[in-house]
Please model this.
Amino acid sequence: MSNLLLEEMTWPEIKTALDNGFNKVIIPSGSIEQHGPHLAQLSDTVIAEASAVDLAKRLGKTLVAPVIRPGLSDHHLSLPGTISLRPEIFSGLIEDYINSYKNHGFKQFIMISSHGGNFSALDEIASKLSQKHPNLKFVTGLSLQDLLDLISSMEADENMPEGACGGHACDYETSVLLYLFPQHVRMDKARAGYVGKPTREVLDQIYKGGIAAVSETGVLGNPCYAKAERGRRYFEKEQETLFKTVKEKLNEQ
Ligand SMILES: [Zn+2]
Model:
């Protein structure tokens, strides 16, 4: 099958896929939020879809649900354009996706996010739904801590200065976007933001006080030296790790 996006398929194509054992669905979530002066608001959303399609190919017999475009982004609301969903709307959307798909025969639901703010909500939704539907499987991707550790190890592997991959509109995210969707990057506007270590404490400060508490431009990291070729390596490494994690979680349950 060449197209794995459910929203681009017809119902008979989806039925044939189900008959052929495609019983896994990835539900990607992103965000529509400020990404500094140099990346478009939909950055997480387009990365989430690309990541889901790549993961679906690696897993096999897996389709991809329409991306949930806005996410939980209260901490970015101080800058224009950001949309943030109420947590109950976000979880309600995912639950309604699942209520619809489970009646068609899908049995395994993989919830991933390219936006850190969605991670803990996804874990809660997965555990709630696992109790509600014991005959179905619900798994999430990397934990926020796993992702932060992965980004800082990739930063070191690439010999980037510490803090360049701060986690938001940084060298990592800007390079990935330059690789996947360069049309959404304005490199001439890229400036360094907060370049300290993105520790748990700093993240808590951001989630409580908003991004402006640490960075005026909304950037965590330094995007000035971003390169598409490095973005390809970042993306592939992250996808390998995501695939391994999801595969293990699917086998565990
Ligand atoms: Zn982002």
